[in-house]
Amino acid sequence: MPATLITFLMALAFCAVHVFVGRLHWLDRTPRSKWLSFAGGVAVGYVFLHIMPELGAHAGTFERATGLPAQLAEALVYTLSLAGLALFYGLERALSASRDTRKQAEGRDRPHHPVFWLHIAASALLMVMIAYLLNHREDQTPAGLVLFFAAMMLHFVTADFGTRTHHPEIYDARGRWVLAGATLVGWLLGVLVGLPQIAIGGLFAFVAGGIVLLVLKEELPEERKSYFLPFLGGVVLYAALVLGEQWSVA
Hints:
The chain crosses the membrane at residues 6-24, 36-55, 75-95, 115-134, 146-163, 175-192, 198-216, 228-249. This is ZIP Zinc transporter. The model has no long low-confidence stretch (mean pLDDT 83). This protein has helices spanning 3-20, 34-66, 70-106, 113-133, 142-166, 168-192, 197-219, 228-249. The two termini are 26 Å apart. The chain is built from eight helices and no strands.
């Protein structure tokens, strides 16, 4: 099967998560669903076993492309990652503050519409980048692509579920279609537009920071009453798969 068709099917699967996450009613309960904690564990495993090493690889790309000293090139890559984390942290804080303000003023447990749409727009931008990277990743092996796809699928379940809880009416009416459309746009750009390696490295670094923040935001807050053992199971399973892949290649 052609690689482009495989990544297109993966992009469609991402779209399915955006569109149908609202139907996963068994996830919407307190204490937090064990499956969400498991998905969070897999996503954390992805952060440490794929994102961190790939950031190091992209630092080498920055060094070769710019001629900068190795330490400065590495610092630039991690600064881009920090920018992604800071952007999504700011958006999450804005959502929370808007939700609290509206609850006190109107008795509605919803953020103001412009704030929620700003969050959707940022999430759509992140989706464009992630879908683009389906066709332009540092690790181009089939196993690496499958692990990336699996980790992102589970991450989108937790991230979309969290986004939808802020304003399910807007998310179900229009927000989910914006995210699905952004996914297909990103995949199409990945097929039609080939960026320089330094630009791809910058995209990945920015995406990495956003993913790190969203993973930790969804799994760690105390009020969510997360389950440790399913979370640990997700971490261990993903680590075992990655180590198995590396062992087979060695």
